[in-house]
């Protein structure tokens, strides 16, 4: 099993006791993973695929667009240091959730906006934040949010070469770009 290039912990592990996990799809997963590993309270990040109907898909299969998967980042975090609401704020503010099957110049269903929730509380928070951010975007003239919120389902890790890609390739591609509209954070991080 490979270790994380920054945290030096094994990839593919379950959250340790007292930690939670979240999965977010915000377009190309390289920049998304870097965004999350830079946050205080993150224990592990891992890129992969979720939301599709093929077991253990490869990057090439997902790229063809026929497996139904989105590129996602799995985040294991210490909720005593960073709240799920803060993670949602980062999610909404760092991509354009109104673009359907694309992010900027990246086209295809693998680039769609996606949240996978693991608890009823995460589901409720994700739904509430989506409604709130949709209203904030509408005021600024943006179309409806196309983000899909799914209950827990398989996360399929991407190839080792794609894990922490921008740490290994600092000049690599990062298409991460928000709308410039701020999201609210109802429950700030614990002190």
Q: How would you describe the overall organization of this protein?
A:
This protein is an alpha+beta fold and 191 residues long. It has one domain: Peptide methionine sulphoxide reductase MsrA (Peptide Methionine Sulfoxide Reductase, Chain A, 2-Layer Sandwich), CATH 3.30.1060. It is 26% helix and 20% strand. The chain is built from five helices and eight strands. Strands 7-6-1-3-2-8 form a six-stranded mixed sheet, covered by helices on one side. The protein has a two-stranded antiparallel ribbon with strand order 4-5. The N and C termini lie far apart (35 Å). The mean pLDDT is 95.
Q: Tags for this entry?
A:
alpha+beta; 26% helix; Peptide Methionine Sulfoxide Reductase, Chain A; six-stranded mixed β-sheet; 191 residues; two-stranded antiparallel sheet
CATH superfamily assignment? Peptide methionine sulphoxide reductase MsrA
The number of helical runs is 5
Count of DSSP strands = 8
- Strand adjacency order, main sheet: 7-6-1-3-2-8
What is the CATH class designation?
Answer: Alpha Beta
C-alpha-based Rg, rounded: 15 Å
Can you tell me the number of structural domains? 1
Helical content, roughly?
25-40%
At the third CATH level, what is the topology name? Peptide Methionine Sulfoxide Reductase, Chain A
Cα distance, first to last residue? 35 Å
Beta-strand content = 15-25%
Q: How many strands, what sense, and barrel or not for the largest sheet?
A: 6 strands, mixed
CATH architecture: 2-Layer Sandwich
Structural class of the secondary elements? alpha+beta
Q: Spell out the helices and strands N to C.
A: EHEHEHEEEHEEH
- Rough outline: globular
């Amino acid at each position: 099993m490979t270790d994380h290039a920054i945290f030096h912990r094994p990839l593919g592990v379950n959250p340790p006791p007292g930690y939670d996990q979240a999965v977010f799809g915000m377009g190309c997963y390289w920049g998304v993973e870097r965004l999350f590993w830079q946050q205080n309270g993150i224990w592990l990040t891992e890129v992969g695929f979720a939301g599709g109907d093929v077991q253990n898909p490869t990057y090439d299969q997902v790229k063809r667009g026929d497996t139904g998967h989105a590129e996602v980042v799995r985040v294991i975090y210490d909720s005593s240091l960073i709240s799920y609401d803060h993670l949602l704020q980062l999610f909404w503010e760092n991509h354009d959730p109104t673009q359907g099957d694309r992010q900027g110049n990246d086209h295809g269903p693998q680039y769609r906006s996606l949240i996978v929730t693991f608890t009823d509380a995460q589901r409720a928070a994700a739904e509430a934040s989506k409604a709130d951010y949709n209203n904030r975007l509408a005021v600024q003239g943006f179309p409806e949010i196309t983000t899909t919120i799914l209950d827990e389902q398989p996360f399929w890790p991407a190839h080792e070469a794609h894990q922490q890609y921008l740490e290994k390739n600092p000049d690599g591609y990062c298409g991460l770009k928000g709308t410039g509209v701020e999201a609210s954070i109802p429950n700030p991080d614990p002190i």
